[in-house]
Amino acid sequence: MTFDYDLFVIGGGSGGVRAGRVAAANGAKVALAEEFRMGGTCVIRGCVPKKLMVFASGYSEMFEDARSYGWDLDDGDFDWSRFRGKLDAELERLEGIYRKLLKGSNVEIFDARATVKDAHTVTLSTGQEITAKQILVATGGRPVVPDMPGAELGITSNEIFNLEELPKSILIVGGGYIASEFAGILNGLGVKVTQFYRGAQILRGFDDEARGLVAEGMRAKGVDLHLGTNVVEMRAATENDLKGIDGGTLMDGGKPAPMPGKAAGHGIWVKATNGNEQVYDQVMFATGRAPNTDGMGLENLGVALGRKGEIIVDEYSQTKVPSIYAIGDVTDRVQLTPVAIREGMAFVETVFKGNPTPVDHDLIPSAVFTQPELGTVGLTEEQAAEQGPIEVYCSSFKPMNHSFAGREDRVLMKLIVCADTRKVLGCHIVSDHAGELIQLVGIAVKMGATKEDFDRTVAVHPTMAEELVTMKEPVRTA
Question: Disulfide engineering: 469 pairs with which of 64, 189, 431, 457, CB 3.0-4.6 Å?
Answer without folding.
Answer: 457
